[in-house]
Amino acid sequence: MEVTTKRMSLVVGTLGVLSFVLGVIAENKKPASGTPITGKDVVICKYPADPTVALGYLSFVFLALSTLAGGWSLFYPYKGKSIPLPALFQSTSFFIFFLIALGSTGLAATMLLWPTITEQKHLSSNVHYNFETTCPTAKTGLLGGGAFLALDAALFWLVSLMLANNAREDYFYDVKDAGGAALKAEYI
């Protein structure tokens, strides 16, 4: 099975959509708070069973896989032809979208992991010595925002792939002369 830009874009897009869907479901399934149960000198928070932590981590894993596939697809030598990195990064639009894809991936990862780890901490540390506790959960909205950023990151990786493909075509552009021989025109 040959690796093509079309297949790689399908992989990146699918993984990004999976990350988005799992992140949105995790946000919607997250309980508003737990139920405080007062004991002797402690308050124990009882939380309803929910898949928020597992879905949050899965969303992050699919974001990471989408990012790895996106980054790999940019530098893969399609049809056995590799392009030197300086020639690829000479394209200003590619460089800008590459940086935006990296930045949005980092922000999405942060916004997915922060509430997921916080929620896991709340679930495991459910004994409190403060009788005023309200049995908190992770901040509402961060998982959903991270899910949308994960989708945005996948889309930016796809745009970067298209721009890398354009830079690759420009680098390997062949012009036929009148005698039928191919002349290589290098764009620097």
Molecular structure report:
- This protein has helices spanning 5-29, 52-75, 85-89, 92-124, 142-171; strands spanning 35-38, 43-46, 127-128, 174-176, 182-184.
- It is mainly alpha-helical.
- It has one domain (5-184).
- The strands form 2 sheets. The chain has a 3-stranded antiparallel sheet with strand order 1-2-3, with no helix packed on it. The protein has a two-stranded antiparallel ribbon with strand order 4-5.
- Helix 1 runs antiparallel to helix 2.
- The longest helix has 33 residues, at 92-124.
- The chain is elongated, with a radius of gyration of 24 Å.
- The protein starts with a helix and ends with a strand.
- Residues 174-180 have low confidence and may be disordered.
- It holds the Pfam family DUF1218.
List keywords for this structure.
188 residues; mainly alpha; elongated; DESIGUAL; transmembrane helix; membrane; signal
Secondary-structure map:
Blueprint: H1 5-29, E1 35-38, E2 43-46, H2 52-75, H3 85-89, H4 92-124, E3 127-128, H5 142-171, E4 174-176, E5 182-184
Helix pairs in contact: 1-2, 1-5, 2-4, 2-5, 4-5
Can you summarize this structure?
It holds the Pfam family DUF1218. Helix content is 62%, strand content 9%.
Distance between the termini: 33 Å
Oligomer: single chain
Q: Strand order of the main beta sheet, please?
A: 1-2-3
Number of domains: 1
Give a short account of the largest sheet: 3 strands, antiparallel
Count every beta strand, where a strand is a DSSP E run of 2 or more residues: 5
Average pLDDT across residues? 87
Strand content: 5-15%
| Low-confidence runs | 174-180
Report the order of strands and helices. HEEHHHEHEE
* Count of DSSP-assigned helices: 5
User: What characteristic shape results from the CA principal axes?
Assistant: elongated
Radius of gyration: 24 Å
The amount of helix comes to: 55-70%
